[in-house]
Amino acid sequence: MTLLIFLLLLANSGAAVSLTGYFWHITDVHWDPDYKVTDNPWAVCPSASEPVRNPGKWGSYLCDSPWALINSSIYAMKDIFPNPNFIIWTGDDTPHIPNEKLSDEAVLRMIGNVSQLIQHVFPDTKVYAAMGNHDIHPKSQFPATGHVIYNRTAELWTHWLDGRSIPTFLKGAFYTEKLPNREGQRMIILNTNFYYNRNALTADLSDPAGQFQWFEDVLSRALTAGEKVYIIGHIPPGFFEKKRGTHWFQEHFNKRYLEIIQKHSQVIAGQFFGHQHRDSFKIFYSNNGSPVSAMFIAPAVTPWKTTLAGLQDGSQNPGIRLFEYNTDTLQILDMVTYYLNLTFANIQAPRWVKEYRLTEAFQVPDGTAESMQTVLDKLSWDKCHLQKYYEYNSVSYDLGECNDQCRTDHICAIKEVDYTRYKNCIKSGGSSKMNEMCLLLCFSMLSLSILVFAYS
Ligand SMILES: *[C@@H]1O[C@H](CO)[C@@H](O)[C@H](O)[C@H]1NC(C)=O
Ligand SMILES: *[C@@H]1O[C@H](CO)[C@@H](O)[C@H](O)[C@H]1NC(C)=O
Ligand SMILES: *[C@@H]1O[C@H](CO)[C@@H](O)[C@H](O)[C@H]1NC(C)=O
Ligand SMILES: *[C@@H]1O[C@H](CO)[C@@H](O)[C@H](O)[C@H]1NC(C)=O
Ligand SMILES: [Zn+2]
Ligand SMILES: [Zn+2]
Known about the structure:
There is one protein chain. The chain is about 40% helix and about 15% strand. It is of the alpha/beta class. The protein has a single domain, classed as Metallo-dependent phosphatases (Purple Acid Phosphatase, chain A, domain 2), CATH 3.60.21. The strands form two sheets. Strands 3-2-1-10-11-12 form a six-stranded mixed beta sheet. Strands 4-5-6-7-9-8 form a six-stranded mixed beta sheet, with helices on both faces. Helix 7 links the parallel strand 6 (about 230) and strand 7 (about 270-275). Helix 3 runs parallel beside helix 4 (about 150-155). The longest helix is centred in the last third of the chain and has 24 residues, at about 430-455. Bound molecules: 2-acetamido-2-deoxy-beta-D-glucopyranose (4 copies) and zinc ion (2 copies). One 2-acetamido-2-deoxy-beta-D-glucopyranose binds next to helix 8.
């Protein structure tokens, strides 16, 4: 009898273990091949927009990544969790330098070097790779009609790409594949660089390379086939929380993206993006206001200080991210961000450590849209949670206080992907309702303590 119970327990725990899968998300490595450690503050790296003092072997907060940092990040993934079910990689491999200093060949060489490194360290792991706006020449100019860089990148990625992905990849660098060794689970890799407001080649098109139509078709077929899907891409829709009113997509593209997610949210188990060099997330809602999908935006490997005008403290520590998911449903179970304290690395040694675990830091059961809504609610009314989230946003680089304006910018960027709704959200200071709730809560707790005091 005891043995039977023991065996049952064993079988049970076995089942539980096999239900949890893992994948790494890495993004925005931005290699600066000319980075060097020197006393001349103007000669450290061409990617910096100001003189660089005290550069270290592992990089500088003003520069894009030296190779040593990129190499360290990929080996850290291998050290921390060597056998993920797959890896997602959302692009941007080249430095922030003028177009005149780059070329098709230079861009391709850098994509090739980073791809080779990932393949070398994870030879048997499936990688789903998306192109970033810095993975083309000139920057951000992705044509809707094919490009030699799409062709050559497809060659660099033959190790990972299914042959059936090639036609759409050559047309516009997007594709879809089933998850490894699984039925009913699918990855959709988008080229959202088409929707970037700096892409002059697609500005006048309604559906560049037919990607939206294709995206909808894939999602409709997924519903019919009973599949669940993950969506990955480089540039996210909606607003950038670090600079009020800054968005990446042209408005009509943003609208279409949002409509597609709303319409097909049933089959979408998660969205994973990069580009912002910040750790944040977005929530998508149904027409009746319930949370239906969450988008996770991963921090960058590059510590580079952004040159976006008016943005303070635009650097971050290098970060990498491991997701835990249910291998049956694709439900996101948890997310752990690891980081390199660049200051510490340059003084002592490159140590990649856990920054935070989603369920621990925000006391939620998992990473579903409902749970991310709970996180958002906590950010809205609990100053401690907001402050914690704010520090993670720059990967524990900017530890300053998140004031009221900062709170509004973050809350509205998370909650409102739609442009008009975002503007209204900003106008109303995030959400006055939440403030009232907080007041109400504080007030009722106060009166409760007075009551307790009076009766004791
Ligand atoms: C990359 O990192 C690994 C592991 O730390 C190290 O053994 C190797 O020498 C590094 N290679 C380069 C080119 O930095
Ligand atoms: C990058 O790739 C080129 C070949 O395209 C090779 O010559 C070079 O050594 C590589 N650099 C690194 C750092 O891997
Ligand atoms: C890319 O490859 C396809 C298929 O081989 C070919 O038809 C097309 O001309 C190539 N495009 C460019 C820009 O090289
Ligand atoms: C990073 O390392 C530096 C130097 O050891 C230290 O002063 C700083 O507090 C560390 N930052 C974090 C967030 O731990
Ligand atoms: Zn980037
Ligand atoms: Zn980018």
